[in-house]
Structures are given as C-alpha cells and as structure tokens.
Amino acid sequence: MPLRCCDVIPDSSAYGVDQPWGYIMSASYRDLRVWQSAMELVVSVYHETQGFPKEELYGLTSQMRRAAVSIPSNIAEGKGRSTDRDRALFFCHVRGSLLELETQILIAQRLRYLTASRSEDLIRNSNELGRMLNSLIQSIRIPESARRSQA
Question: What average pLDDT does the segment 104-121 reach?
C-alpha cells in the first residue's frame, strides 16, 4: 500500500521522505502531531476562559471555545476524507478557525480578560500550530500539482 502525504510515521526518513513535520498517512487522526497540538490548545483555551466574566459565558467565552474545538475536529474530519482535495479543504477550514481564535485571544487581551503573558502564550501556540497546518496543506497540494503536470 503506497504512503499518502498526510500520514504520520515514526521515522519518515526510513521511507526516503525528509519532512520535518513527520506526516505520511497513519491509521488514525490521533497520530497526527498537528491534531495533538490542537487538542492541547483546546485545553488551554478552556482553562483560560474559565476566569472570564460570567456575562461573557454566551459571548466571547463561547466563541473562543467553539473556535478552539473546531480546530482538532476539522483536522479529524479532514483526515477521514478520501481525496487530497477534500482533505486540503478541511485543513483550510482549520486555518480559518485558528485565525478566528487568534483574533478572539487579542480581543480578550484588550478587554483585560487575559494578561499579556497568557495571551502571548496562546498566540505562540496558535502560530506553531499554524505552521504545522501550513506544512500539512503544502504536503497535500504539492503531490496534487505534480500529478497534474505529469498528465
């Protein structure tokens, strides 16, 4: 069975693939490092929003939590898609949710619901996740464009 571009293997160099993010399709979305990092970000967002004012429960708190939860959820759903094009589409949705969350983090900081330090930590984690996600999207798109050029 050929390796696919967004699977994870313990040592990608064994397959002649030099990818710093370690993607080469595995059996489960739970093996993807980008999904694991996204899950950690969700937990961080939940912890941080616990201290938000009660009047924000159905406002910013809810929006931040929903945006955060949609990140690993869409990674999992994208991983389950059967074509690279469909996977890339879901991973692009993830990128949108990630940018939405970053904006909400900055809003929370401006409203002084988050300290500058906590906001910076969340943004740093979000940026790292964004880089991993961009690498994953590129790993899907490059083989797709290579196939088109060979046709």
Answer: 98
Query: Residue 19: how many CA atoms within 13 Å on its side-chain side?
Result: 28
Question: pTM of the predicted model, to two decimals?
Answer: 0.77
Cα separations in angstroms, 113 against 40, 69, 97, 104 = 20, 20, 21, 11
Instruction: Give the torsion through C-alpha atoms of 50, 55, 61, 62, to 10 deg.
Output: 120
pLDDT tens-digit map of 126-137: 999 999 999 999
- d(C-alpha 136, C-alpha 139), whole Å: 5
How far is residue 21's CA from residue 34's CA, in Å, rounded to a whole number?
Answer: 9
Instruction: Write down the domain spans for the chain.
Output: 30-150
Place of tokens 């074509």: 83
Q: What is the DSSP string of 34-89?
A: HHHHHHHHHHHHHHHHTTS-GGGTTTHHHHHHHHHHHHHHHHHHHHT-SSHHHHHH
Separation CA 148–CA 99 (nearest Å): 30
CATH classification code of 30-150: 1.20.1440.60
Which residues touch 56 (CB under 8 Å, ≥6 apart)?
A: 113
100 token code pair: 């939405």
